[in-house]
Amino acid sequence: MSADIVIGQTPNGEAIRIDIKELLATRLLVQGNSGSGKSHLLRRLLEESASIVQQVVIDPEGDFVSLAEEFGHVVIDGAAYGEAEIVRLGARIRQHRASVVLALDELEIDQQMKCAAQFLNAMFDAPREQWYPALVVVDEAQMFAPAAAGEVSEEARRISLGAMTNLMCRGRKRGLAGVIATQRLAKLAKNVAAEASNFLMGRTFLDIDMVRAADLLGMERRQAEQIRDLARGQFLGLGPAIARRPVAVNIGSVRTGAKSVTPGLAPLPTASTEDMRELLHADLHVEPERPEFPRPAPRPRLDVEELAASIATSDSVADAPPRPERPEPEPEENRAAMVEILNAMAQEEDCTFQSSTTLFQDFTIRCRMKGISIRGLDATMFRRGFAAALAGIEDPEDERWLDLLNLAKHVPDDALATFYVIARAAMDGKPCPDDMELARIYGTSSPRRVQRLLDYLEKDGLIVVRTDFSGKRSVGLPDLGVTTAPVEA
């Protein structure tokens, strides 16, 4: 099967092709001002390669949902799912190799960034056996990888920029080929743009964007002016998947259309000036009719003493049965009930792949349903209690765990559950869980991230990892004087 597609033609009529196999290894950056034909180019690329490679489209404006009718893409409405569901969808897309469009047009910009980040991270963290090749097309990439802080929250910017950086910098080895499109190169984070080796530059007018585009195309700065003169739908292409020298490309036609349309001209009204004046000023002083409702008679005014007396002697109050008082649980009962809820949550499948915010909200709801007071409990205390429950430490108040809990004060919250699991195995003299189990506890599908976590804990002096000549690994905790049983690494 050929992996070349025709993206368009030169002004002389020669076909310009894109090598999809090469594109998967080298990534693509598209730039063009609004109206330059940038979305049309992406649509042409997606349509021509739909039968060749899996496609994932991050669509902030909902313009690419029409691909579903013609090419069978699955449309995922980002506004209809919660965080945990988006993560599961991202994982299943890698597993089943489905071509999808993540439509984010119903969300505010902050929520778009968070939803896209969770979705991209889930695909990035897929296990190695699911690293199938896929084109990941991100339209309006400057929204998801901004060069500077703007009106969005710092949290949204941080997680979105991290996901885009992973896609462009480290996605290639996982089969993810980023195709990012932006209106302004100056607004796109440089470490994201710099990872692309193929470029299609459309019309732009600002000097800073023209200079950056010319630099990426290997053109002299005095030649940057020609970028301003490009026609709609015309781009300058360069890269190993396109051409070795800058080449002008007129993008070919497409079969599907966008939801938005370019505004056109419509005939002006033919009314005369006097008629138009009459239409604008007719009944301008007349208030719109409103339905009239009968007003109740004014109540007699009472002073404070009379009002208090009337309330005290009211028959309805006197005859009303007293409200049953719910007994306040004892602190020990409260703590035991919370531990029971934490242990139940820790047994649920995929609980570690949900965010701590979602888990904390779920926990507080369960406590309120059981009448448990959560006064004085904050998110940090919850994360540490949940980490203990994941490790099977059912009662943290037990003296057996006292030294471990004191040592764990030096462990970051996100690494605590993994640390507890290793420590408990060492205290029980059992083998250390394998990397896949530790990855599940850590909330990832990537064993390599677990390796980096173990390296961090070892550099911090909290654990010592030892591998003997037979290849068996054991993990010791020097502060506790315990070590896990050796097991094949």
Would you write up a description of this structure?
This protein is α/β, with parallel strands linked by helices and 489 residues long. The protein has 20 helices and 15 strands. It folds into two domains: 4-251, 3-Layer(aba) Sandwich (Rossmann fold); 331-488, no CATH class. The chain is 41% helix and 15% strand. The protein has an eleven-stranded mixed sheet. Strands 12, 13, 14 and 15 form a four-stranded antiparallel sheet that branches. Strand 12 (464-467) and strand 13 (472-477) form a beta hairpin. The longest helix is centred in the first third of the chain and has 17 residues, at 154-170. The protein is globular, with a radius of gyration of 31 Å.
Characteristics:
20 helices; Rossmann fold; 11-stranded mixed sheet; alpha/beta; globular; 489 residues; 41% helix; 4-stranded antiparallel sheet; 2 domains
Helical coverage, percent range: 40-55%
> Which second-level CATH architecture of the largest domain applies?
3-Layer(aba) Sandwich
Give the low-pLDDT segments.
314-320
The total count of helices amounts to 20
What name goes with the CATH superfamily of the largest domain? P-loop containing nucleotide triphosphate hydrolases
Cα-based radius of gyration, to the nearest Å: 31 Å
Distance between the termini: 41 Å
Q: Estimate the strand proportion.
A: 15-25%
CATH topology description of the largest domain: Rossmann fold
Overall pLDDT metric: 82
Task: Count structural domains.
Answer: 2
Q: Which structural class matches the secondary elements? A: alpha/beta
Give me the count of strands.
15
Q: Kindly provide the name of the CATH class of the largest domain.
A: Alpha Beta
